Amino acid sequence: MDLKSISNQKKSLEGMMVLGGAVTGISFVSFIANPIFMIGFIAGGIIMAVAGSRFKKLSIAFKEVHVKKMIEDEIDGISYEPKKGFEKEVVYESKILKKKIDIIVRISYLGSSKIKSFYLLMLNYKM
C-alpha cells in the first residue's frame, strides 16, 4: 500500500463522512416537517459509521506499514505497535515527557472597570 493510494482512500472516506453528515443534518431538519425523513437520518448515520470504521482500518494499515518502519529505522531498540502505541516506560525513559507536569494557569476577567486575575500555580498532575 503506497502513500498515494492511502491518500486517495483517505480523501474518498472524508467525502463519505461529509456526505453522511449532510444527509443526516438535512434529514434531521426535514424530520420536523415530515417524519419520513427519519429514514435519511438513519441512512446518513450508517454512512458516517461505515466511513469511520474504514478510516480507522486505513489508519492502522498506514501505521503498520509506514509509521512502524520509519520509527524502528530511526530509533534503535524501540518497538511500536500501531494499535497500542508506545509502551509507557519507553516514553518516560526517552525523557521526552515527564511523569509530573507543572502547569501555570491564568484566568482573567473584567469586572466593574477592574481587571481581576487569579493565578493557579504549579498544579501537579501525576500520570
Q: How would you describe this structure in keywords?
A:
alpha+beta; disordered C terminus; 127 residues; 2 strands; 57% helix; single chain
The succession of helices and strands, N to C, reads HHHEE
**Biggest sheet: strands, sense, closure?**
2 strands, antiparallel
Shape: elongated
Could you tell me the mean pLDDT? 76
Q: Termini, distance in Å?
A: 37 Å
Any idea what the radius of gyration is? Answer: 24 Å
Total strands: the figure is 2
Your description of this structure?
This protein is an alpha+beta fold and 127 residues long. It has two domains: 3-90; 99-126, no CATH class. The protein is 57% helix and 20% strand. It has helices spanning 3-31, 38-74, 88-93; strands spanning 100-111, 114-126. It has a two-stranded antiparallel sheet with strand order 1-2. The radius of gyration is 24 Å and the shape is elongated.
Structure, briefly:
The chain is of the alpha+beta class and 127 residues long.
How would you summarize the topology of this molecule?
Blueprint: H1 3-31, H2 38-74, H3 88-93, E1 100-111, E2 114-126
Antiparallel strand pairs: 1-2
Helix pairs in contact: 1-2
